[in-house]
Amino acid sequence: MTIIAPSILSADFLNLKSEIEKFNELDDIWLHLDIMDGHFVPNLTFGHTVLKKLHTVTKHKLDAHFMVERPENYIQPFKELNIHNFTFHWEAATHHDRLIAELKEHFPSVGVSLNPSTNIGVIPEYLLEKLDLILVMTVNPGFGGQSFIGGCMDKIEALNKLKKQKGYKYQIQVDGGVNDSNCHSLINIGADNLVAGSYIFGDKDKDYTKRVNSLR
Predict the structure, then answer these.
(1) Are 3 and 28 in contact (CB under 8 A)?
(2) Catalytic residue positions, numbered
(3) What pLDDT is attached to residue 144?
(4) Residue 36 belongs to what H/E stretch?
(5) Is residue 40 scored above 90 in pLDDT?
(6) DSSP, residue by residue, the chain
(7) Nearest Cα to Cα of residue 1 among 193, 137, 189, 160
(8) Over the stretch 60-91, which tens digit does the pLDDT of each residue have?
(9) d(CA 104, CA 181)
């Protein structure tokens, strides 16, 4: 089943515990954590202090997306927070192979994110076989609520084709403008992990189960 990753950046932070608990009866859910430093992207979000007890109110895997400069500096502060997946931006790192190796010592899953204008060809094949996830950004990183960039569909298709040809194991995650009008097309071309923030948390009735099911 397709994994749906609600992005808590769009949740009600005054009631974050109850917001997260709404997903506890659902399966194949990751909780997506957008961590921004105000440098790699202009926005600044939450960090270690806010997230340190998050795992105590959910059964779901925590999926941390680091939109930060020098992602290696975030390994030590976050390694004790029960993070399942640590995704860093290819554009923010220099020694990618060394960083991936270090992350794998502390996190069950390691991913790389690509900005809309970054071609998949920047990742060499010897690293593709080591990655657990590739996050295709379909908006420019830094802010929620942006419109989906349709030109990124080709990138998802290419990653799926390469995955099948080479037997790679990475998940293809898509983040940015995902909703019920494009989700089925994304799944059909190879996406198996969909991040959605505004679409899920923007439901006026707070029927998050209905929104999650509509994405599948």
Answers:
(1) yes
(2) 34, 175
(3) 64
(4) strand 30-36
(5) no
(6) --EEEEBGGGS-GGGHHHHHHTTTT-SSBEEEEEEEBSSSSS-B---HHHHTTGGGG-SSEEEEEEE-SSGGGGHHHHTTTTEEEEEEEGGG-SSHHHHHHHHHTT-SEEEEEE-TTS-GGGS-HHHHTT-SEEEEESS-TT-SSPPP-GGGHHHHHHHHHHHHHHT---EEEEESS--TTTHHHHHHTT--EEEESHHHHT-TT--HHHHHHHH-
(7) 193
(8) 999 999 999 999 999 999 999 999 999 999 99
(9) 36
Q: What pLDDT, in 10s, does the model give residues 129-148?
A: 999 999 999 998 776 667 88
What kind and span of H or E run contains 209? helix 208-215
Full-model pTM: 0.95
55 or 130, which is more confident: 130
pLDDT score of 59 more than 80: yes
Backbone angles phi and psi of 186, in degrees to 5 = -65, -45
- Locate 201 and state its tokens: 């948390």
Spell 146-162 as b/e; 16+ CB within 10 A means b: eebbeebbebbebbbeb
Nearest to 201 by CA among 184, 215, 187: 215
